[in-house]
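Sorry, I am new here, but would you mind making up a protein's amino acid sequence and the tokens describing how it folds?
***
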Amino acid sequence: MATKPTREPSIIIIGAGVAGIAAAVTFKQAGFEDFVILEKGSDVGGVWFWNRYPGLTCDVPSQLYQFGFAPKADWSRIWATGPEIQRYHAEVVEKFGLRAHLRLNSEVTDAVFDGSRWDVTVTGGTRLSADFVIAATGVLHHPFTPDIPGLDSFTGATVHTARWDDSLVTEGKRIAVIGSGSTGVQVISALQPGAAKLTQFTRTPQWVLWAPMELRQSALVAKVLAAAPALHDRLYDAALWASGILADIALHPTWRRKTVQELARWSLRGQVRDRGLRRTLTPDYQPLCKRQVVSGTYYQAIQATNAELVTDAITEIRPTGIRTADGREHEIDVIVFATGFHPHNYMRPMNLRGRDGLTIDQAWEQGPRAYRMSAIPGFPNLFTVLGPNSPTGSISLQYSAELTSRYITRWLERFRAGEFATVEVTEEATTRFHDAVAQAMGPTVWNTGCNSWYFTEQNTIDLWPFDRKTMTALLTEPDDRDFLITRHAPAADATRVESSTR
């Protein structure tokens, strides 16, 4: 009996952060070797490579912020620092032999579907061709700097936290930090002790939940977990289970949500004694509505004698300072922008064109949307890992990325078995999912009246509004009814002598 012909898929993965690494390891473990990872940076880690500002710390406990396939027992702290997380990602790349597939300093400028394959161009003009493109570009990688009048006239130093300059001298300087999110809180806590004066400029205060972020992990714990992998696996599973409680807090207005919200209020009342400052630091929205800021040092830092909180709007930046709406001019040596990112760009600004020349801007004219975080109508053989709706806010990004990558692997296996040439999610299936997301978003804490970076320009919330069990069910096996599947490739592409991604 003749065996069914197989065709090994060639794959281009765009991005070498959490999503890209998860995809590459998952594909490799499933026996797919013909893939290349294109990374625009000079090293792996994604957001953990680009962000190197003082005080950078993950606000997710280390034992949860790791890949299920690469447990790490010896974290130095309960909440790991950015440099340690970046090293971990580099170690994972080495451990699983991904360096041979990796091309650094290779930003994708164009990705065009020609009817059967993807033609991808990177900076410098190098072109590659592949059967599949996996967009693992992440969310927080396009820094946002506000357009403030007079910024170009400033004679001091300016820096964005996502593009930190290691040669920047902040010791003994008059520092302005613009921003109040997690990054702003962390960089203020780190820079305040050595500053001549530190001034935080913010229009909207954040709820800050107290936690001992600098707490070290016991060396004994590391030894025990390293010696007992099964115990470490159980700890990881327990951490995932605990994240389910966080999901319930975010998704449903229960006593759990009220308890955590009261803890945030207590953190402010218990640490800020001055009533005037406490009023200024009190947001006008519910705790948890925005991404929750966690810190054990911020309130102490902003109350220091060399620190000041300014809530008046910035009207102009002058050569030697910042002028605010109350007419004050604040003398400044260094401006630090902790102003976040363009969080909904995803693959953009690359020229991404799918079937019949459809551009990603046209496809997302009403905002970024993807079927189950993983596929976009009009873009055959393209999948996203940590795409739209996946900045979960309550479920492990690593779990989401690994689950999505295994889902994509099902399609790769079917392609290899000769079951199809191209696969594209339907507009109808994507609309059904999008409508279900919108309905489920109603009772979530993110929809209780604040303006956060979770909102798109179309006023939709770009998060996952379901629990982990639902995510697992939706991303376990593909449903052919939701896809357009072509069974035969054009004759010119039916066979290949060698991989086109090498």
Summary: Residues 491-502 have pLDDT under 50 and may be disordered. The longest strand covers residues 108-113. The first helix runs from residue 18 to 29. The radius of gyration is 24 Å.
